[in-house]
Amino acid sequence: MELSDLIVFRTVVEAGGVSKAADLLNRVPSNITARIQKLESELDKQLFIREKNRLHISPAGEQLLGYAKKILLLADEAVDQLNQSQPKGKLRLGSMEALAASRLSDILMEYHKTFPEVDLEVQTNPTGLLIDQVLEGRQDLALVADPPKDPRLEITPVFEETLVLVSDSLHKAIGNPMDLGPKPTLLGFSARCAYRTRLTEWIAGADQVPKVVEINSYHALLNCVTAGMGVGLIPEKLLDFYPFKDGLKIHALPDHIQKTTTSMIWRKDSVKPSLKAFAEILSKASNCR
Questions:
Q1: Which domain holds residue 26?
Q2: Cβ–Cβ < 8 Å for 18, 29
Q3: Parallel, antiparallel, or unpaired: how do β-strands 118-124 and 185-188 relate?
Q4: Helix H segments across the chain?
């Protein structure tokens, strides 16, 4: 069925005949009759009962009329949504756990207050997984660490972060991988976490083979570090929100390890008003301006 056929059908019913429908649709009566016959042929149902020069809607026509009204209403709604320029609908946002815990609260609050008609969904994952989700269309926008260039992606830096190595308060100073001892234990997220990858590569450069314990939240990671279970690499900003940081020792690392950039990424072919609005608010809060 074509939408135009359903419009003709609905108009004939509402106008009470072919001639009046033709006038309303600015067509000749023969065209209206042909479209109705085409629809009846496609459905293999008689939509009107014909008596002399009058038409009465049939039981099958009554059934179709209800669906036709719903279908045409949805079609109009779809066109309206696609043409509207105000942020509405669903926006799927992916973020690294550390960023969500340290920088996003005020931004999310402002966005929700400014655009209440947007249904914002936030999910945290490691950088590698977030990039995959954006490329596959499962996230509209993501906040990731040092993403590689990709012709499909728009990449905009938003936050410069300083990463620090944290240990329990009794650990000796750490200036190079050898200070971690012969069998270091690292606490971090999955292997697709950009920060964990950076730390393991730094240690591997000194021929160290660390044990890695995967943790699923930074709060849990910091608690485990405080308890002396290992060391972890985190954004320094995160310590502003950790109430037990007196139980930690903070170790500065070389610039190529400690300097990282968080960027927002989205597919160039999948921009929508709600995404642009979020990007604008995030850009205002950025320290990369």
A1: 3-83
A2: yes
A3: unpaired
A4: 3-15, 18-25, 29-43, 59-83, 97-102, 104-114, 127-135, 194-204, 218-226, 255-258, 273-285
Stated pTM of the model: 0.72
For the chain, report the end-to-end CA distance as a whole number of angstroms: 53
pLDDT tens by residue, 33-66: 999 999 999 999 999 998 877 888 999 999 999 9
Query: Do 153 and 135 touch, CB atoms closer than 8 A?
Result: yes
Quick one: tokens of 95?
Answer: 């973020």
Say whether 235 sits in a helix, a strand or coil.
Answer: strand
Looking at the fold, whether 255 and 170 belong to one and the same domain comes out as yes
Question: Would you state the structure tokens that stand for residue 35, as one six-digit string?
Answer: 């479209």
State the total domains in the chain: 3
Helix (H, G, I), strand (E, B) or coil at 88: coil
Rounded mean pLDDT of the chain?
91
Q: How confident is the model at residue 84 (pLDDT cuts 50, 70, 90)?
A: low
Q: Per the structure block, which two tokens stand in for 243? A: 């109430």
